[in-house]
């Protein structure tokens, strides 16, 4: 899995999802594996005790998923998600920030589709009016 820098979200998210699936951790990111309720068994003598082993196992796996994501994130991306305490909220934040509708992904898609000559014309068009005569000469 490559390091997430923001611009490579489409590839990174697919590869990270596949890796987390192979480790049995993806459900923590998509929310299908949720924290189990505390089990409070009642014994024959009427006493009870809390069994938190299922919750502890869930927390351990959730932490593994977060750690895996953070290890394959650039320092700038890691700063964005450092306050997240659950894998689902970590993944959701990354998807919200870098997903399909993000400015970075739109730029990345458009960068490759605009021919160089059009990019030059766009730059020339952005110049202030005092450059109009120079632009006329360059365009001809």
TrEMBL record:
Classification of source organism: Eukaryota, Fungi, Dikarya, Basidiomycota, Agaricomycotina
Organism: Gloeophyllum trabeum (strain ATCC 11539 / FP-39264 / Madison 617) (Brown rot fungus)
Listed name of the protein: DUF4219 domain-containing protein
């Amino acid at each position: 899995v490559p390091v997430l820098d923001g611009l490579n979200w489409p590839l990174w998210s697919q590869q990270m999802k596949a890796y987390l699936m192979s480790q049995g951790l993806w459900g923590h990111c998509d929310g299908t594996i949720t924290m189990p309720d505390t089990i409070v068994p009642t014994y024959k003598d009427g006493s009870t005790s809390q069994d938190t082993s299922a919750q502890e196992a869930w927390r351990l796996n959730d932490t593994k998923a977060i750690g895996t994501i953070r290890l394959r994130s650039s320092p700038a991306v890691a700063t964005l998600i450092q306050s997240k305490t659950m894998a689902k909220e970590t993944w959701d934040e990354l998807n919200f920030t870098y997903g399909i509708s993000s400015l970075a992904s739109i730029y990345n898609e458009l960068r490759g589709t605009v021919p160089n000559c059009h990019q030059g014309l766009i730059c020339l068009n952005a110049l202030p009016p005092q450059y109009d005569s120079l632009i006329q000469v360059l365009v001809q």
